[in-house]
Amino acid sequence: MQRKIRIYDASLRDGTQGEGVSFSESGRIRFAHLLDEFGIDFIEGGYPGSNPTDRNFFNEMKKSSLRNAQLVAFGMACRPGIEPDRDPALRALLEAETEWVTIYGKSHPSHVEKVLGLQWRDYFPLLAQTVRFLHREGRKVIFDAEHFFDGWRSAPEDVAQMLEQLFAESPEYLTLCDTNGGTLPGEIGSFTAAVAAMKSGVPLGIHTHNDCGLAVANTLAALENGAEMAQGCVNGFGERIGNADLTSIIPILELKCPQFTCIGPERLKMLSILSKTADELTNRRPDPCRPFVGSSAFSHKAGTHVNAVAKDPSSFEQIDPAAVGNERHVLVSELAGKTNILIKSRELGEPLDHLDKTGLEKILNEIKERESVGYSYESVDGSLKILLQKALHRYSPKFELDGFRVIVEKRGRDVPCISEATIKIKVGDKASLSAGEGGGPVDALNQALRTALRPFYPEIDQMSLSDYRVRILDPQQAAKATTRVVIESSDSKQQWSTIGVSENIVEASWQAMLESLEYFLNNR
Q1: Euclidean distance between CA atoms 391 and 521, whole angstroms
Q2: Which whole number is the average pLDDT over 100-117?
Q3: Distance CA 88, CA 49 (A)
Q4: ∠ CA 5-7-9 to the nearest 5 degrees?
Q5: 37 contacts 25 by C-beta, under 8 angstroms
Q6: Most buried of 220, 310, 320, 350, CB within 10 angstroms?
C-alpha cells in the first residue's frame, strides 16, 4: 500500500530568503494559485508578524479561495515573559486568518542558552504553551523544530524531553529541521527513526537545506524512516545554497519510489511549467542542468548516445521526459553523428532524410569546421536552421548589406559614451540608408538596421531582441581574443537564438543580429 506524502511549499517565505529571489505582490498571488493547481498540500505564504508585504499577501488571499492547498501563515513561538494572547507576532499570525499555522522554535539546548540567553528547561515549555494557545484559537499547528538534527546529535535526551512536551499538545505535524544543511543522510534517517519510535501519534515532517548538496537525499532518508511531510521550495530557492528542491523530490516520489505517492502522475506533467514560472516570476535565468525540469535534463550530444536513444529511449533516459512536462533535445556539435543531425533536422522542420551518406557528412563536416573556430550550435536553433536551409538551397536572403559604420564618441571623462551607426542596405533594386543611436555600438547598429528595413518589412516590429550574451573564447589573446555573441530573439509565437563569432565584437554581434532577422523573415 502506498503511503501518501504531504508536500509543503515554502517558496513564498523561506525561498525568498535566497539571494536574488523576490516575488512581486501580483507574482506571489499568481504563484500561490499555480501551486494550488499543481496539487501542493500546504503553501507557506509568509511571516505576517515580520513585514507589511506578507501581511498584504494574506489580506489579498482572503479575496479568493484555494481548491487543493492549505494556505499557511508562519511565525515564531511566544516570547519569554509575554502571555501568548498579548504577543504581537502571534496576534499577527491569527490576523492572517489561515486555518493552518506554522511556528518555529529552537531544539538545540546550546543555541537556546547562547543565542536566546535562556535556560533550556525554561524555554521549551514556552513552545508547548504556544501550541496550546493556537489550538485554543482554532488553528491547526505545524511545529518546525529548528536545528533539530544538530540538537539531537549534541543532547538527545534533552531534546527528547522537549519533544515529549510538544507531543502532549498534539500538534498536527512536527517538522524536523536540518537548518544548517550539514547533516548526512545516514544521520537524518536514524534520527528520524528514533523520533518516530517514540510513538507519539504526531505525524513528522522533514525540512532540509542544501549546504552539502544533500537536501533532496536527506529528505528522502527522513521519508523512508517515518516522516510523512516533505518541506521544500520550487527550484531549490532559499537561504545560502537553498532549500530542498521540490522539483526533484516530487518526481522522485512519484516515479522512483513505488511505496510513496504525493501529487499523482497527471499533475506531475505540470512540473516543468511550474519550475519555469517560478524563475520567470523571480526574474531568474532557469538552470539548464536542474534535474527533471532543466532544458539539459534530456539532452543528448554524443552521436552514439543519440543513436541509442533513437532505438530505445530508456538506454540513456531515466524516465519519459513527458512525465514531468519536459522534452528531449538532440544537440548538434563536434561530437554529433548522423543520427543527431537527422533527428535535429526533423525537429527544426528541415528534414535531411532524403540525403545520402555523402550529403549528411558534408553538413556535419561544415558544422564541425565552424565549431573548431568558435561557433557552437548546441543551443542556437535559429542559426542551425539557417545553416540547414542554406545546405538544402531553401534559404532566401531578404536584403543585401552595402556597408555600415559605427562611431563611439566620449566627450569628457564623466560623460557617458555616445554610439551612432549608419547602414546602407539593398532590398531588390532599392537602396535604403539609415542611422541609429543607442546605449552602445550594437544597440545603435540594431536601431539603424531596423529603420532601414522597416519600409520593406514592417512586420519586424513584431520581433524583439530579448537577450545578448558575450563570451571570450581565448582570453590569453587579450584584446585580440575571439568573441562569441549569442542573441536571443522572440515574437508572439516563438523564441530563437543565433550566433556570431569574430575577433571584433561588433562583427560578431552583426552576424548574430543578421541571422536573427533573417530567421524571422524566412520563418514567420
Answers
A1: 18
A2: 87
A3: 7
A4: 165
A5: no
A6: 220
Q: Is 84 helix (H, G, I), strand (E, B) or coil?
A: helix
Q: Can you tell me which residue has the cell 517558496? A: 11
> Residue 119: what residue type?
Q
If you ran DSSP here, which 8-state letter would residue 115 be given? I
Asked if 274 contacts 246 with a C-beta cutoff of 8 angstroms, the reply is no
Compute the mean pLDDT over every residue in the chain, rounded to the nearest whole number.
87
- 152 Cβ contact list (under 8 Å, min separation 6): 107, 159, 191, 194
Cα→Cα distances 478→389, 448, 474, 481, 503, Å: 36, 30, 8, 5, 10
Which stretches does DSSP call E strand in 189-315? 204-208, 229-232, 260-261, 299-300
Tens-place pLDDT, residues 486-507: 888 888 888 888 999 998 889 9
Mean pLDDT, to the nearest integer, of 65-91? 89
Residue with more model confidence, 248 or 64: 248
Dihedral sign (CA 450, 451, 454, 456) = negative
Domains (range + CATH), the chain: 3-281 (3.20.20.70), 299-391 (no CATH), 400-523 (3.30.160.270)
Which set of grid coordinates corresponds to residue 97? 486568518
Residue with cell 499555480: 34
Encode pLDDT of 363-414 as tens digits.
888 878 888 788 877 678 888 888 888 888 888 888 999 999 999 988 888 8
**Percent of residues, the chain, with pLDDT higher than 90:** 46
Residue 303 pLDDT class (50, 70, 90 cuts): low
Do residues 333 and 296 touch, judged by C-beta distance below 8 A? no
What stretches of 39-155 show up as alpha helix (H) in DSSP? 52-61, 88-95, 109-111, 120-136, 148-154
Angle between helices 120-136 and 88-95 (to 10 degrees): 30
Asked whether the CA dihedral 467, 473, 476, 477 is positive or negative, the reply is negative
Concatenating the DSSP letter of every residue in 357-412 gives HHHHHHHHHHHHHHHHTT---SS-HHHHHHHHHHHTT----S-EEEEEEEEEE--S
Return the ∠ at Cα 55 (arms to 52 and 60), rounded to 5°.
Answer: 120
| Strands lying side by side in the sheet with 495-502 | 464-472, 483-490, 495-502
Pick from 238, 191, 239: nearest CA to 218: 191
